[in-house]
């Protein structure tokens, strides 16, 4: 066919070009074979050199054949074809401007160029798509290869990097479309297929997942420009909108790419309407459909969010269309719309100069954001808080919104979602960092100024109201009010004038009648009636011809004339402010007497401005005060989250308290101290967060010099030590140790501390003591800090001054103790431990201070003595000798005091008396020495024996003959050495045990001499009734019992008697700690006394309950005591009125929940004990306890088993209260469909109890929970269960059982009436008749069970709980005789189907 006679139609598919179409439609004549393609391509190239781009008209079949065989031809041919087609299209685009400008162009030439243009573009674009398809498939095949492997393979396949070739092609097509090519078509209307061809390749490129990679950025930009030209010049808007929506639904990677393109089209290309079109399409999407299409919703949500960040002003006009998605089910779409609103608030609706419409829009957006802070989905709530955080950080939140948004954040702190809590803390931290009020937010500091300024404002408003009232009063009414008093004054003056009395008012010479009239009016207004009347009388005589004094009716009486004249003056037509007040009269009036009617306009304006300023000041202070109160409230909530949430939340809490502390909130110090124990956290992130917090707060103080900064640092750390507990000091010591080891504390800090300790710089005794304490803490990290100045430290704290400073001496002892390693020596250590000789001055001074101080009643001597004994055993060679001398010296002094008291002249019948404090000190010292001697033997001596043995074995091994070494194999030798080592360890342990049992408390030892005295004090509390002495004696007895099992066994009854019967809480608390230690050291001895330990959990004293809770927590979690039914006493602590004890109990159960099925196994016993009529708890506390405990049941199997057990317990429950408790427990379990089936199987157990409203409500709540996440197939079971519940509630159990009995023929359960009668006579039934009471078999299981099982089921089994499946010995130890039920009716089951759960 001649090129001039045909017309090329762009096909929808390549196969259409092979079919014969309409008249003059181009058809491919022949698809060339692969071997002929190179030659025909060369012919095409030659023709192109001769004819230019029109050569395509004759050689299109060649290019079509190459496209047809694209997968099979040689890569070099593909590359040559692509390069050649780029030249053809480029040449054509260069020639077209001249051709288009040629007005004399013939129709045939125009048609030829049009066909060539379409052919060239079609060929180039199809070749581009072929390369793109092949590359995508190759990349999918090479996913497992490395990055280099994929690239190498791509190059080997194509011979070039295709990703670098796409951009020039797209630029060429863009250049072509920018020409005015529409003149090539008839009527200058370009066919839609041509635009679709060009833009289709762009969308095909965008579908490639790698298009979003950074390396493909030039390609993305080229695609954007090409589509931008199509939009602006070729009316591609509708098609682009539809295509973008489709791609967002199916390609997740395209959201960011399309956002960049759309925002560029809207700004640089002026196509703002495309934003509205896309928003309209998204807004019209059905929310229900999006909830079923999460990938499409995610694409739309990402697109809207990022588009709002780029062009918020353009998108804002379309927000009304998107609001429907806020009510949809898909949370991602809600997040996207809310994020778009936030961006508009940040970028468009920000500032104080907004118009009223914009301000209303901003307020609506903020209202919507606040409302969704309570969204049902936690991700939406979290997103809202994140958006508000950004708004606050960029200071775009109006001040009027501060209080409600802060309240929202504080409320979200109690959210169940960890993510929401974390973002709420971040929002509050942003509020603090960007608050407009003050850098110091102390509500106590703000309360004073607020009260003062509020009072001032009230006074100003009162003055304003008084002035306003006086100006607004009708003169006639005011005259009527003053007339009676004025008349009485006038009558009195007239009477006095007749008698010749009265002082006339003088009128100045230059005063006019008007001025005098004004004076009279002022006097009347001030209620100075006497002066007004006298001045009026003078004016009548002075101004006889002037108004109004000349109009006097002579017929009236004098009184009437005066009253008429005064009325005329006061009620005159002229306004009072128009009168001019004489200067002298004004000076006589006070400021409060001067009405505002005499003030000029500037003065009024100034007063108004002052009032407005005062109102603004009060409002500012009120906002600041309310803000600080909210922050204080948040501190209390956030501090509780420090130990209850995940690592990320704990880190946020720590950062929050750092910021709050920097803003000077007084309660922040509580949080800073509370975070200290987190230094022991096993989570590295939490530990590092605590270290970073203390770095920020304390290691970077302000100061001009290193010394000034060191002094500030020491001062801040010393504040932490004020009233600090032992635990707080240990935590701070660990932190300082970490800082010292990393050299983060400057040398200037150590220098200043030593200067304060040695009093080279003036400081108070407490500051000196804190300096020594800090030096001791730092010595943990670097022992040489104290070790190199040991003599200096001894001279500081242990000098011979009187009275001695025991507090400082105690800190010196603890600081010196830190230079040695307190841990037991490990086998790897070959060097001997660091110890000082007995003759060292340190021990001499300690012995002397302890011995001399025992006779003085100083309360600080006891903690010093304890630290001194610890130090001696830690550092001295032969510490037992030093302490024996110390004990002997103290005992000698006590005897001397006793002899002094026993005067020979007194009657011999009087018993000698010893001061109470001296006896207390002596027993306390003996107890400390006893305990430290035990620790010394168990750790230091045992470790040293082991070290010497290992050294000896190594030495013997080295001296052995080489032949002897080879006699046995290496494995055999290692085994023998292991056995020898184990035997040696046992021998050493037996040696230490023998010393403790046989020698330490033997009559020949020093400690044994104190045992009779100690036992006498403990056995005679009436004789030795001093509380401090009793406490010291009980603690010393516990320490002595730690030494020997024999001595402990003989004194256990005394210990537990004192623990139970002592009237002193401090004694009971001390003995609780002592018996806890004994339970670890001698568990077999203490085990029979375990119920007495549990009993202290209900002690009336808060201090004892807290101590008992701590001790039992350690014993139970370390498996040192058997967890029995008494653990319910720990559960009762969950409702303890003391928050610390309740928190302790909660922490105990948190830890216990990590120990397998411990809580699950204990729950039945806990429920029985807590709901028992005797010894249980009230109903509301029971609910609180069980809600906490049942929250630990998370496994489905545990839930199902527990449901069955609880349902069965309805049979054995004796009271209605127990029925309600069981129903409540069932309602708190996380039930599943299988759990519901368990309830249906055991419906007979509780069906007759449903008439009780609270039980019925509890089971209905179970139905409500099950419906929330129920599957369609499970809803039928739920409906059936609910129908049975309602039927039993309204008509009783018989109403639902009668039809079923008739249908299935199964045996009916006893009716509610019969059941109640059985329960009433339960005590009359003997144990032998238990078989008569049989639990009915569930009907569901019965109808499906084979006959063989029914026969087996005749063997009745007793229902038991896992907690009951223990040995008889455990059961007998679990309950006392009075707690054990005397007559019970065990429930028998008729089947073994569920014999164990």
Automatic annotation (TrEMBL):
Ranges where the record places region Disordered: 573-608, 952-973, 1292-1397
Domain (Condensin complex subunit 1 N-terminal): residue spans on this chain: 77-240
Signal sequence region: none
GO cellular component labels: centriolar satellite; ciliary basal body; condensed chromosome, centromeric region; condensin complex; cytosol; nuclear chromosome; nucleoplasm
Record GO biological process: cell division; meiotic chromosome condensation; mitotic chromosome condensation; positive regulation of chromosome condensation
Compositionally biased region (Acidic residues): 1365-1378
Domain Condensin complex subunit 1 C-terminal: 1066-1227
Biased composition (Basic and acidic residues): 596-608, 952-967
Pfam families, per database record: Cnd1 (PF12717), Cnd1_N (PF12922)
Main location per the UniProt record: nucleus
Tagged with keyword Cytoplasm: yes
Subcellular location(s) of the protein: Chromosome; Cytoplasm; Nucleus
Swiss-Prot/TrEMBL keywords: Cell cycle, Cell division, Chromosome, Cytoplasm, DNA condensation, Mitosis, Nucleus, Phosphoprotein
One MF term in the entry's GO annotations: histone binding
Function: Regulatory subunit of the condensin complex, a complex required for conversion of interphase chromatin into mitotic-like condense chromosomes. The condensin complex probably introduces positive supercoils into relaxed DNA in the presence of type I topoisomerases and converts nicked DNA into positive knotted forms in the presence of type II topoisomerases. May target the condensin complex to DNA via its C-terminal domain. May promote the resolution of double-strand DNA catenanes (intertwines) between sister chromatids.
Protein family: Belongs to the CND1 (condensin subunit 1) family.
PANTHER family: CONDENSIN, CONDENSIN COMPLEX SUBUNIT 1
Assembly information from the UniProt record: Component of the condensin complex, which contains the SMC2 and SMC4 heterodimer, and three non SMC subunits that probably regulate the complex: NCAPH/BRRN1, NCAPD2/CAPD2 and NCAPG. Interacts with histones H1 and H3.
Annotated protein name in UniProt: Condensin complex subunit 1
